[in-house]
Design brief:
The protein is of the alpha/beta class. The protein folds into two domains: 216 residues, 3-Layer(aba) Sandwich (Rossmann fold); 61 residues, Alpha-Beta Plaits (2-Layer Sandwich), CATH 3.30.70. It is built from nine helices and 13 strands. The strands form three sheets. It has a six-stranded mixed beta sheet with strand order 5-6-7-3-8-9, sandwiched between helices. A four-stranded antiparallel beta sheet has the order 11-12-10-13, with helices on one face. A three-stranded antiparallel beta sheet has the order 2-1-4, with helices on one face.
């Protein structure tokens, strides 16, 4: 069953924030939402959680509506962090996890596990305001997963973290998925979605513009990228019909071409000119697809 959105629309007055979105997110899967600011991602999350009522359409989790009766099954990491600054970490987590129906003993046991895992065991009795932003984010993440939810919604979980902590959090997210939790997350970072998700939805101005399995989306895009490293000038490749873009790099060029046939032609041309150190045909990146579908770069 999983999470099902059917023809969901959200209007604020005359403004349509989410326009007729239909998605099915199977259980035990990680699903990615991409889109620029104002694309409708957070509004969609808030409707899934019942924090906002949809104007039209239906949202169900395993065939049921999401409300207080399902709160122990659901975890949410909001984009805007919201911990109580004066509370100690342990008090904060105990308070939030009790709301999810956990006993104090279980909470403290889980909290020790997570603090150890995130390499911050000494933070248990510190006040939230004493922690750096990145470490506050770890605590907020713990609050969203401590009750072992079946559905976990993460809104920009990696923003503001340094690379080491991004990896720590990513590993945790993968483990949670492997233990059977359905995870829906939005990210500004294309590579995180590419690494973590089988299925995704790119939203633009409240509408899904691309939706489906990552592999299929890449395949149906058709265009390919080529990385070429050589010691001679490769700019002449721009004149080949079917070469759509050429970007110079420190060691050569990066091309976008229409098809594999064009890639073959490019290969013949390059080899005829001299020694080639690298010629690699690559799948299109999500970034390429995003720019094509949405018309702007996405940072």
């Amino acid at each position: 069953m999983g999470l099902v959105l059917k023809n969901v629309t959200k209007q604020f007055g005359s403004f349509t924030a989410v326009n007729n979105i239909s998605l099915e997110i199977p259980e035990k899967e990680m699903f990615g939402f991409l889109g620029g600011n104002g694309a409708g991602k957070t509004t969609t999350f808030r409707m899934i959680l019942g924090l906002l009522d949809q104007t039209e359409g239906e949202i169900t989790w395993n065939g049921r509506n999401i409300n207080y009766s399902t709160s122990s099954e659901i975890g949410y990491l909001p984009e805007e962090r919201g911990l109580y600054p004066k509370m100690k970490v342990s008090e904060q987590i105990v308070y939030l996890a009790r709301l999810r129906g956990m006993s104090k003993n279980d909470i403290l046991k889980e909290l020790d596990y997570w603090l150890e895992r995130f390499k911050v065991p000494d933070y248990k009795n510190k006040k939230v305001e004493e922690l750096s932003k990145g470490n506050q984010q770890k605590i907020q993440f713990i609050a969203s997963v401590i009750h072992k939810p079946k559905l976990l919604i993460l809104d920009e979980p990696f923003s503001g973290l340094d690379p080491v902590n991004v990896e720590l959090l990513k590993d945790a997210v993968k483990d949670i998925r492997n233990n059977g939790t359905t995870i829906v997350f939005s990210s500004h970072r294309m590579e995180h979605v590419e690494e973590l998700c089988e299925n995704l939805c790119i939203m633009h101005k409240g509408q899904p513009v691309v939706h489906g399995q990552l592999k299929k989306i890449k395949r149906s895009f058709g265009k390919k990228n080529i990385a070429i490293h050589a010691d001679f000038d490769l700019r002449f490749l721009q004149s080949i019909s079917g070469v759509l873009k050429l970007r110079e790099t420190a060691e050569g060029v990066h091309l976008q071409v229409e098809s594999e046939e064009i890639a073959e032609e490019v290969f013949k041309e390059v080899v005829a000119k001299g020694f080639v150190r690298k010629f690699e045909l690559e799948e299109p990146s999500l970034h390429d697809i995003f720019i094509e579908k949405v018309g702007t770069s996405y940072e």
